[in-house]
């Protein structure tokens, strides 16, 4: 990514810091629930499959909401869209914390997903528009916020989850409420901002483009592998909330490092389709190793951390590819892609626990590896249709958009 002097990054208006802070908290939500899944299952007398539905409801609604976020933000403006998103997260995170049964928590996580979709689809453009020191400074700041959120989420979930499974939800509600107040006070009004309105049907129509459809199908199968590793692994690990939190802190750090720094280096030296065709099979191998060593917590921890390194590359390269696959507006292309992609993420967690209960603990990883290999085959056999994604190099802004949407799940 483009470098910039630390002083220019730090000299930002208050509104930029307000959105950056809220971005850290929003991206913490990716791994926040992970360490408390076993505790929720135990304390609410729920099966592992029911606990996994916390991911399913969140991801399914996030994906569906992505189909309308560009329509909404193009009419309401960024400030109102950000505030609505943050407000929904506060309300539903608090409601989840106060719930007495797992069905209620599942439902409230769905509302959380709606709020998160509205927020993350608007935050990057807001920071870029408000930052001083040029686009590069703004994007470095945003990437720092994103990386912090991804890494800290599981750690905070483990710390607060060690007190109670309700702790991470209360913590998120409190921090998001602070972010809401900061944005309400510091971010400029939408009244004078020119906006080009997006049609409601635009993302669905975008999936008629062959290149975008191929990438969406690739991401659907890839995301099954992603979320088996993320959402199922806490159960065979057998750690307490803090142990799971530390494990996925390592996962988040690896993912953040490779998504921000390694992926751009690889795509500067090789075609995107080549990077995908190499790294997807490596992820499949990592998942197969997890299947073979499922009885060894130390080996599973290693697979999680290595998986994070590979996932960071794949997230960024896939979404960079989406940005370049068509001449559609990037917000429309990313909305269409994300909606399909999150279906894989929504299906994977409960599928994994059903396979574990009915076959064996290792079977979820075997199925995940097979799914990732299918994603690799889609890329290989679709290379002719994907030729456009190998042309040219990414702008810094496009890379940041790719990182954002790639890690939003």
Helix content: over 70%
Mean pLDDT reading: 87
Strand content: under 5%
Kindly report how far apart the N and C termini lie.
22 Å
Rounded Rg: 20 Å
Which features does this protein show?
409 residues, mainly alpha, Growth Hormone, Chain: A, 17 helices, 79% helix, disordered N terminus
What does this entry look like structurally?
This protein has helices at residues 6-10, 14-28, 37-43, 48-76, 78-97, 102-130, 134-161, 167-186, 202-206, 210-232, 234-237, 241-269, 272-292, 297-325, 330-358, 363-381, 396-407. By secondary structure, it is mainly alpha-helical. It has a single domain, classed as Up-down Bundle (Growth Hormone, Chain: A). α2 packs antiparallel against α8 (167-186). The longest helix has 29 residues, at 48-76. The two termini are 22 Å apart. This is Putative MFS family arabinose efflux permease. Residues 15-387 form the Major facilitator superfamily (MFS) profile domain.
How would you briefly describe this protein structure?
79% of the residues lie in helices and 0% in strands.
List the helices and strands and how they pair.
Layout: H1 6-10, H2 14-28, H3 37-43, H4 48-76, H5 78-97, H6 102-130, H7 134-161, H8 167-186, H9 202-206, H10 210-232, H11 234-237, H12 241-269, H13 272-292, H14 297-325, H15 330-358, H16 363-381, H17 396-407
Helix pairs in contact: 2-6, 2-7, 2-8, 3-4, 4-5, 4-6, 4-15, 5-6, 5-8, 6-7, 7-12, 7-17, 10-14, 10-15, 10-16, 12-14, 13-14, 13-16, 14-17, 15-16
